[in-house]
Design brief:
Blueprint (H helix, E strand, L loop, with lengths): L2 H15 L5 E6 L7 E7 L2 E8 L7 H14 L8 E6 L4 E6 L8 H16 L3 H10 L1
Antiparallel strand pairs: 1-2, 2-3, 3-5, 4-5
Helix pairs in contact: 3-4
Length: about 140
C-alpha cells in the first residue's frame, strides 16, 4: 500500500473518531474485482479498506456507501457498517467495518439478502437499481 493511501486512511479515521488514528498493519485480502482491498489494523480497530482511482471511477464509493446503508436498513442479513469515504486527487477509499468470513455460507447469505431486498424493492426504485447492478 502506498504511503499516500495510508495517510488518507489515517486522516479519514482520525476525523471519524475525533483523535489521531495510526495504521499499524496492512494485509491484502480478496474482496474487490476492480478495487484493491485490505484488512487494515489501526489504533482504532480493524477495518476493511477498498481503494481505487477516482478519475476512473468517480463517485463510486459514495454510491456504494448509499447502497450499503440502504441494504442495512432493509435486510436482516449482517451488512458491514460504512465508517468513511474519502478521496484525494489520485486515490479514493471506502472504509468498512471488518467482518470475519466464515460466519455462514456466503451463498445462503446472498440468497437471503436478495430475497429480502426484492420483497421491499417494489416500492423503492433506488433499491431496485442496486439489486440490478449487483447481478
Amino acid at each position: 500500500m502506498k504511503p499516500s493511501l495510508i495517510l488518507l486512511i489515517e486522516k479519514a479515521l482520525s476525523g471519524v473518531f475525533g483523535k489521531p488514528v495510526t495504521v499499524s498493519a496492512i494485509e491484502s485480502v480478496p474482496g474487490g474485482s476492480i478495487n484493491e482491498t485490505w484488512k487494515t489494523e489501526t489504533s482504532a480497530g480493524s477495518f476493511f479498506i477498498k481503494s481505487n482511482d477516482p478519475e476512473k471511477f468517480p463517485g463510486m464509493f459514495e454510491a456504494e456507501k448509499r447502497g450499503l446503508r440502504l441494504l442495512k436498513n432493509n435486510s436482516s442479513v449482517k451488512i458491514p457498517e460504512v465508517i468513511a469515504v474519502s478521496e484525494s486527487k489520485k486515490e479514493s477509499i471506502l472504509i468498512l467495518e471488518f467482518m470475519e468470513s466464515g460466519e455462514t455460507n456466503a451463498f445462503e447469505r446472498f440468497a437471503e439478502l436478495l430475497s429480502g431486498c426484492i420483497k421491499k424493492a417494489a416500492s423503492n426504485s433506488v433499491l431496485i437499481m442496486i439489486i440490478i447492478s449487483a447481478l
